[in-house]
Amino acid sequence: LMLEGKLRSVVAEQRLQVHYQPKYDAMTGHIAGVEALARWFDDDEGYISPEEFIPLAEDCGLVGEIDEFVTWRACRDLMSLKAEADLTLTLAVNFSPAHFIHRGLHERIESTLSSTGFPGELLEVEVTEAVVASEEAHLHEYLNQIRGLGVRLAIDDFGIAYSSLSRLKQLPINTLKIDRSFIRDIGDDSDDEVIVRTIIDMAHNLNLKVVAEGVETHAQLEFIRRHGCDQVQGYLFSKPMPIDQLKVVLNKEN
Ligand code: G
Ligand code: G
Ligand code: MN
Ligand code: NA
């Protein structure tokens, strides 16, 4: 309850921070984009993980405000990078399913895009498989409205919730991010290697881009490159970082 009160004020006062984790082209190794991740540093408690405060925010109705704040802040931050370095990085943001499946969300995304000047074509929204499984009658329409802004849709943590493949094929989705639990066991668990290979092949057959998250070792990288995964993300390359540090990383790349 105390944490909920703190969360309410940190959200109201816009004191949540946003960190960025690069995604790399698996073949060239160049930075293709970044994922924005909410960060909470509390004066008393120190760092509080989103694994703790996002579920809390979902329960107390704050998550929509958080997701939209992170999107706005990240669009603004990347526009400031663009002004300095003429970059065309893609930006991925995470949306909670409960908040994502709502009429009118596309209008608020559109207003964030127009107020920051960030191009819709460079924005990707990551949602979990719960969205694929949703029985919301207007789901298809809502997704199309967001796609209508040029914004791309990714399924995050893919593979753990048994998405219906026919549903996946019907919905206007662009990208699958293979859950890091499958990447973790590459080299140790041949079942997970089969799953990773199968997801990559299936994604490509459905004309979807595929991203491996949680890549921590060269062996994992080699494996997913060999099987044609499009992008990689993970501690092997870089952890989420504040915007100032991202600037340094990007300057080194150029
Ligand atoms: O960044 P970290 O690995 O600690 O994130 C833990 C979880 O919190 C991940 O599932 C991530 O998707 C989620 N998360 C991080 N930032 C946001 C956010 O801005 N909105 C939502 N809905 N989830 C987020
Ligand atoms: O659920 P989602 O994919 O949005 O979670 C993103 C979070 O995953 C990031 O905030 C980051 O903290 C975490 N993450 C990113 N790369 C790695 C990695 O290589 N290993 C582990 N264990 N966690 C990672
Ligand atoms: Mn994500
Ligand atoms: Na993920």
From TrEMBL:
What stretch of the complete protein does the chain hold? 434 to 687 of 691
Give the source lineage, highest ranks first.
Answer: Bacteria, Pseudomonadati, Pseudomonadota, Gammaproteobacteria, Oceanospirillales
Q: What protein is this chain from?
A: Diguanylate cyclase (GGDEF)-like protein
Q: What are the EAL domain coordinates in residue numbering?
A: 1-254
